[in-house]
C-alpha cells in the first residue's frame, strides 16, 4: 500500500534508489566523523603529554606515580565535570573554587561548634552548597545578567564570608580538627580513603571521579535533560521557543556545580581534618581550563564529559610530571597556559575540519 | 456566536483576534487588529518592516501578552503566558531564526522540548532509535530526504532547515502553524519548496498564518490577506475580494506610493506604469541625477 521506500530507515547506507538522497552531501568518512567528536583533540594532546613525561621522567613510569597523577586529576576532575556541563549550558561559575572551601568550612564548623556527628555537618554543607548554586542560577535567570558578573559577585562574597565567619567563630583562620568526632572515620571512608587495586594504593576520589563522569556522560547524551543542556547553551531563545524549561535547566546546572563543590569540599575536610579559610581562590579557573582543554566550547552548546575527564587527567599529568621530572614546580602554570592555548587551537582546527563540507 | 455542532467543526475559527493591541510602555506597537484563522485556510499577514507583524505573532505564539482587545482560541478568551501554553493549545510557531540549535544534530532538533523517552525515572532515557526513525519518516512524508540525521542542523541549507521546522510543527499536532517570514532569506527555488509545504499543511487541515513582506508569495497560497501598516490594519480581505495588484498597492503603502509615483514620474528612466516593488523604491530614486 504505502511506499516501500519508507521501510528503509536511515541505517542502510546508500538508499535503495538514487532519488532517496539529495545527492549533494556524500557520506562523511569515518575518520572525519571521528574528528567531529569533541574529545578527540584532547585525547591526542593527552597521549602526547603522557609520552613526553614517560620519556623524560623515569619515576613517571611507575604504577604508584600513575595513582598519584590520577588522584591529582580527580580533585580537579570531579569539579570540572559539573563546570563543563554548566559551560555546555552556556554559563560559567567563578564561585566554584571558593565554594569548595565554603562547603568544607560549613561541615567542619557545624560539627565542631555544635558537637554533633560529622554527618550532620556534611548534610548541612550539602544544603548550603546546593543553595549557593541555586542562588547563582536564580540571580542569573531573574536578572538576565551574564553569569560572569553574577558569579563574580558570589565569588567575592563567599571569599569574604569564608574568612570573616571562620575568624568570628573559631577566632582563627583555620577550623579546629574534627578527627576525633563521631562519624569521622565513616565519613573519611566515603570521601577520602585509600583502596588497593592490583597492589597499588589508589585514592577513592579517583573512583568517584570516574563514576561521576559516567553519570554525567550518560545524562548529557542519553537523557532529555542532557538534550536541554545542549539546547540552552547552543541557542537559549530557540530552546525556550520550542518549550525547553530554560530557567530550570540553568538553575539545576548551577546546583550541580554546588554538588561538586560539596563533594570536593568534603574530601578536603576528611583528608586534612581542618580547613584553611583562605584557600580555593583561583581553582575555579583551573576547572574552567580543564573543561575547555577537554573540548567544551566557551560559548556553550558543545562539549563532552569524557573530554573533560581527559582534560583533568592532562592537568594531573602536568602537575605531577613536572615534579617527577625534577623540574621547578614554578613552571607549572606556564605549562598549563601553553596547554590551554594549544588545546583550544587544536579544538578549533579540528572542528573546522570536521564541519567542512 | 452560535455555531451548530455539525458544521461547526470545520468552520469555527481556531484563533480569533478582535481589536488586539500591544503597548510597550508608551510605545504603541500594535492596536485594533482583527484576525481570524480557520482550519484548512492560509491567512497571510503582510506589512513592511516595523508594521507590527512580529509583535502580532509574538502575541499569538505566547511570547508576549496583548494589552488591549480580545484573543480567543476555540471561542474562549485566553492570555498565553509562555510558548508552551500556545503549543499545548495547538499553536506552533516556526520562527524566522527557525528556533533550531545549529550545533545539535537534525534528529535532536526535531524532538527538542518534546523528546521521546523509555524506561522508568532514574533510568529514563532518550529513545534514540525511535526518534531517528520517526524524524526520518516525518521528513520523508513532507518530501524532505536527508542523508544523515546526525549532521548538525546548522549545516543544512536555509530551505531544508525551514522544511525540518515545518515538519516538526506538523508532527507535534499543530492545528495552527505560524510561519514568520519563511521565504525571506531564500532563493526562488527554495521559496517554491517552502510554499509547497505551506499548501501541504493547509491540505492536511491546518490553519496557517503566513507572515511575509512578499505579496507575490502571499498571493500564491493565501486565502485571506491582512495587511498591517504602522501597527494597525491597512487591509483585511478574502482572496476573492482583492487582486495581486491591489495587494501590492496596499502593501507598499497605497496613498504614499501614489505620491511617490508622482515624484518618480519626473525622473527619467523610471517606468511608473508598472508599480515598482517596494524594495526597489529607494534604489530607484537614489541614482537620479
From TrEMBL, chain A:
Transmembrane region(s): 34-57, 69-87, 118-141, 148-175, 195-221, 242-265, 285-302, 331-350
Instruction: Write out the coiled-coil annotation as residue ranges.
Output: none
Which residue intervals make up region (Disordered)?
Answer: 1-28
What are the entry keywords? Cell inner membrane, Cell membrane, Membrane, Sugar transport, Transmembrane, Transmembrane helix, Transport
Keyword Chloroplast in record: no
Cellular location(s):
Cell membrane
The membrane-topology field of this record reads: Multi-pass membrane protein
Q: What is its main location?
A: membrane
Q: Name the source's superkingdom.
A: Bacteria
What does the UniProt function comment say about this protein? Part of the binding-protein-dependent transport system for D-xylose. Probably responsible for the translocation of the substrate across the membrane.
- The name this protein goes by in its record: Xylose transport system permease protein XylH
Organism of derivation: Streptantibioticus ferralitis
Organismal lineage: Bacteria, Bacillati, Actinomycetota, Actinomycetes, Kitasatosporales
UniProtKB/TrEMBL annotation, chain B:
- What are the record keywords, sorted? ATP-binding, Nucleotide-binding
Q: Which InterPro entries match?
A: AAA+_ATPase (IPR003593), ABC_carbohydrate_import_ATPase (IPR050107), ABC_transporter-like_ATP-bd (IPR003439), P-loop_NTPase (IPR027417)
Alphabetized Gene3D superfamilies for the sequence: P-loop containing nucleotide triphosphate hydrolases
Enumerate the transmembrane spans: none
Which Pfam families does the UniProt record give?
ABC_tran
| Ranges for domain ABC transporter | 15-255
Gene Ontology MF term list: ATP binding
Q: What is this protein called?
A: ATP-binding cassette domain-containing protein
Organism of origin is: Streptantibioticus ferralitis
Upper taxonomic lineage: Bacteria, Bacillati, Actinomycetota, Actinomycetes, Kitasatosporales
Amino acid at each position: 500500500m504505502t511506499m516501500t521506500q519508507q521501510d528503509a530507515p536511515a541505517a542502510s547506507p546508500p538508499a535503495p534508489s538514487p532519488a532517496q538522497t539529495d545527492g549533494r552531501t556524500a557520506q562523511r568518512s569515518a575518520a572525519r566523523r571521528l574528528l567531529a567528536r569533541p574529545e578527540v583533540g584532547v585525547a591526542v594532546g593527552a597521549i602526547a603529554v603522557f609520552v613526553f613525561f614517560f620519556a623524560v621522567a623515569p619515576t613517571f613510569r611507575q604504577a604508584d606515580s600513575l595513582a598519584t597523577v590520577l588522584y591529582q586529576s580527580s580533585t580537579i576532575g570531579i569539579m570540572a565535570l559539573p563546570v563543563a556541563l554548566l559551560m555546555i549550558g552556556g554559563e560559567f561559575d567563578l564561585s566554584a573554587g571558593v565554594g569548595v572551601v565554603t562547603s568544607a568550612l560549613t561541615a567542619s564548623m557545624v560539627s565542631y561548634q555544635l558537637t554533633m556527628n560529622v554527618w550532620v555537618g556534611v548534610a548541612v554543607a550539602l544544603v548550603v552548597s546546593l543553595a549557593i548554586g541555586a542562588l547563582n542560577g536564580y540571580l542569573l535567570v531573574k536578572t538576565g545578567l551574564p553569569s560572569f558578573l553574577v558569579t563574580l559577585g558570589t565569588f567575592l562574597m563567599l571569599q569574604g564570608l569564608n574568612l570573616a565567619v571562620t575568624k568570628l567563630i573559631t577566632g582563627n583562620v583555620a577550623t579546629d580538627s574534627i578527627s576525633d568526632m563521631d562519624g569521622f572515620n565513616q565519613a573519611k571512608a566515603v570521601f577520602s580513603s585509600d583502596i588497593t587495586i592490583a597492589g597499588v594504593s589508589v585514592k577513592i576520589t579517583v573512583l568517584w571521579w570516574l563514576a561521576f563522569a559516567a553519570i554525567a556522560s550518560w545524562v548529557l547524551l542519553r537523557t532529555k535533560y542532557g538534550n536541554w543542556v545542549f539546547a540552552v547553551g547552543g541557542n537559549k531563545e530557540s530552546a525556550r521557543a520550542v518549550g525547553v524549561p530554560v530557567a530550570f535547566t540553568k538553575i539545576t546546572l548551577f546546583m550541580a556545580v554546588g554538588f561538586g563543590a560539596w563533594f570536593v569540599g568534603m574530601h578536603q575536610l576528611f583528608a586534612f581534618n581542618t580547613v584553611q579559610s583562605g584557600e580555593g581562590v583561583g581553582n575555579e579557573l583551573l576547572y574552567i581550563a580543564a573543561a575547555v582543554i577537554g573540548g567544551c566550547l566557551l560559548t556553550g552548546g558543545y562539549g563532552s564529559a569524557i573530554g573533560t575527564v581527559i582534560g583533568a587527567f592532562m592537568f594531573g599529568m602536568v602537575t605531577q610530571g613536572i615534579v617527577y621530572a625534577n623540574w621547578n614546580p614554578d613552571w607549572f602554570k606556564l605549562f598549563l597556559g601553553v596547554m590551554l592555548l594549544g588545546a583550544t587551537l587544536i579544538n578549533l582546527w579540528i572542528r573546522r575540519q570536521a564541519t567542512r563540507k | 456566536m452560535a455555531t451548530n455542532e455539525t458544521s461547526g467543526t470545520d468552520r469555527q475559527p481556531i484563533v480569533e483576534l478582535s481589536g488586539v493591541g500591544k503597548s510597550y510602555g508608551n510605545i504603541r506597537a500594535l492596536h485594533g487588529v482583527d484576525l481570524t484563522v480557520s482550519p484548512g485556510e492560509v491567512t497571510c499577514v503582510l506589512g513592511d518592516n516595523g508594521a507590527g507583524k512580529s509583535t502580532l505573532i509574538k502575541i499569538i505564539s505566547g511570547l508576549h501578552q496583548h494589552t488591549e482587545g480580545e484573543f480567543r482560541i476555540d471561542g474562549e478568551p485566553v492570555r498565553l503566558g509562555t510558548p508552551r501554553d500556545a503549543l499545548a493549545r495547538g499553536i506552533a510557531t516556526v520562527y524566522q531564526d527557525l528556533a533550531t540549535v545549529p550545533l545539535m544534530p537534525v534528529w535532536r532538533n526535531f524532538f527538542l522540548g518534546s523528546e521521546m523517552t523509555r524506561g522508568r525515572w532514574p533510568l529514563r532515557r532518550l529513545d534514540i532509535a525511535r526518534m531517528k526513525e520517526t524524524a526520518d519518516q516525518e521528513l520523508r512524508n513532507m518530501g524532505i530526504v536527508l542523508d544523515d540525521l546526525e549532521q548538525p542542523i546548522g549545516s543544512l541549507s536555509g530551505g531544508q532547515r525551514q522544511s525540518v521546522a515545518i515538519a516538526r510543527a506538523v508532527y507535534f499536532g499543530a492545528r495552527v502553524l505560524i510561519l514568520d517570514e519563511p521565504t525571506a532569506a531564500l532563493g526562488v527555488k527554495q521559496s517554491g519548496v517552502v510554499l509547497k509545504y505551506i499548501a501541504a499543511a493547509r491540505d492536511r487541515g491546518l490553519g496557517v498564518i503566513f507572515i511575509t513582506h512578499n505579496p507575490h508569495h502571499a498571493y500564491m497560497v493565501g486565502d485571506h490577506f491582512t495587511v498591517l501598516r504602522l501597527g494597525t490594519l491597512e487591509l483585511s480581505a478574502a482572496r476573492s475580494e482583492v487582486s495581486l495588484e491591489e495587494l501590492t498597492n496596499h502593501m507598499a503603502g497605497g496613498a504614499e506610493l501614489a505620491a511617490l509615483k508622482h515624484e518618480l514620474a519626473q525622473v527619467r528612466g523610471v517606468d511608473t506604469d508598472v508599480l515598482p516593488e517596494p524594495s526597489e523604491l529607494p534604489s530607484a530614486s537614489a541614482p537620479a541625477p
